[in-house]
Every structure is written in structure tokens, then in C-alpha cells.
Amino acid sequence: xxxxxxxxxxxxxxxxxxxxxxxxxxxxxxxxxxxxxxxxxxxxxxxxxxxxxxxxxxxxxxxxxxxxxxxxxxxxxxxxxxxxxxxxxxxxxxxxxxxxxxxxxxxxxxxxxxxxxxxxxxxxxxxxxxxxxxxxxxxxxxxxxxxxx
Amino acid sequence: xxxxxxxxxxxxxxxxxxxxxxxxxxxxxxxxxxxxxxxxxxxxxxxxxxxxxxxxxxxxxxxxxxxxxxxxxxxxxxxxxxxxxxxxxxxxxxxxxxxxxxxxxxxxxxxxxxxxxxxxxxxxxxxxxxxxxxxxxxxxxxxxxxxxx
Lengths: 149, 149
Hints:
Oligomer: homodimer
CATH topology of chain A: Jelly Rolls
Number of strands of chain A: 14
CATH class of chain A: Mainly Beta
Largest sheet of chain A: 5 strands, antiparallel
Strand content of chain A: over 45%
Number of domains of chain A: 1
Strand order of the largest sheet of chain A: 5-6-13-8-11
């Protein structure tokens, strides 16, 4: 099992490097005693996230799709980095591939499976539904002080 | 300018495909009249996100790092998909590369630049700071009803 190691940290930030994104099966997430999931990496606790859980999901060819799940209060956004798969929400089906981005509300009954010949690699972002009102760039503040490198 | 087109949509979900992740410079984000930013793609409004803004950032070789910025209320998480760069927060510097994940609190004075010879491709996740208390898998509910494909 490869650990998420913090590589830089300060008052207002923390950073890690989890490795090459097509080699994430070196990480193993222990769901319960005896139930290990290779390729699943959660970084929220290690980085000290307060607004999102971000995880990486590697599903080998021929796998996935074993169960449906919903969420109590969280919205999910899935981003496909590589591979091919099929996704379902509430009994509606659609294909996913590199560049696919999927938002699922907490009540959506969802599942996904790998339908290709290579790993299906995705990022999964969990956030509290209805927690963010101002999308886009309106929250950012560009500073007048010069940037130094 | 390439548009974000919704490819699947239902009561509890929406999906798009923004294209190959090393070709995002085909997208152009208009920051203000006359100020176009190639390679920046925001998907929150199009997908109907309620808990996060998710954007893709492509910074060509030799570019980036022109200004510092903070946020009013949002935490950011950056994920590096490819390329090499340098990141700074509050005057502290660290390198970033494929697999780097960086959390920055709203008050962190941040900037990044491409220090490599290829595009620096990142995902940027904005969420309301302190909005998510339960990280990990505790919010998920695995359903007993069988999954059909």
C-alpha cells in the first residue's frame, strides 16, 4: 500500500504527489477489514480539505458496476482521465471516455463499469450539495502586489 | 471557441465531454471583453453544479505566474494531469508535476507557472471552505437493489 505523503505544507496550503495517474493501482484503499480496493486514493484528510473530498478511482478492464449507490448529502462530480466505460443514473445509461465530466445529485442511483480494454481512471469529487452559490471566477481576488519567483 | 455541450441529462445528473485532456487549448474562456484565455474550461454552470466549480487549466510552456490571487470564501484544490511547473503560496515555493494535488485555503496568496517544455494541464476545484465535514466514504449509501446493465 502506497501512502499519501505530504510534500509541502504551510499555513494556507498542503501538497502531495500521488504518482503517475495510470499507475494508481499501487495505492490500496481498505474499505473494511479484509476488503481492499486497489487504485482508490482519497486525499481529503491528508491534505486537510474542508470543502471537498477528492478521490482517484482506477477500475481495471472488465470490472466495476457491481452495485448502485446514492449519497446522503453530497453531490458528486466524476472526471474521466482515461479509458472507456458506461455510467448509469436512475436507470438511464450513457458512455464515458477521456474528457467526460458527470455531475450526480445526492439522490441519483448511480453505478459505472469499465467497458474497454484498459484501466478506467477517474477523479471523483464529493461536495455538500447546494453549498456553493457563486460559480466561475467571482470568488477570486487578483492582488495588486507583484508576484516574485 | 469550443462549447461545453451537455451529452446526457436527467433529473439527478448531467454529463458532458470536453475532449482529450491534452487538447483543451481548443476551448477559450472570455475573462472580460477582449481578454480570451485559451485552455480554460469551466463546467459548473453547464452541468448545474451546486457544490463545486470545476475548471480545467492549460498553461503553455513558458507561461503562467503573472499574478497572485486569493479567494473570498472558497478553498481550491489543484490536480496536475500533465506537465511540470512551480507553485507558490504565501511566498513558499514547490514544484508540481503529474499526480500533484495541492489544497489552498482562501487566504493563501497563490500563483503557478509552467517550468517545462510541454503544456501544464491542471484541474482546479473550487468549493466553499468549511462546507464539508464528513470526508471519505461516510456519506455514501450502497443500495441493496440489484444493479442492471
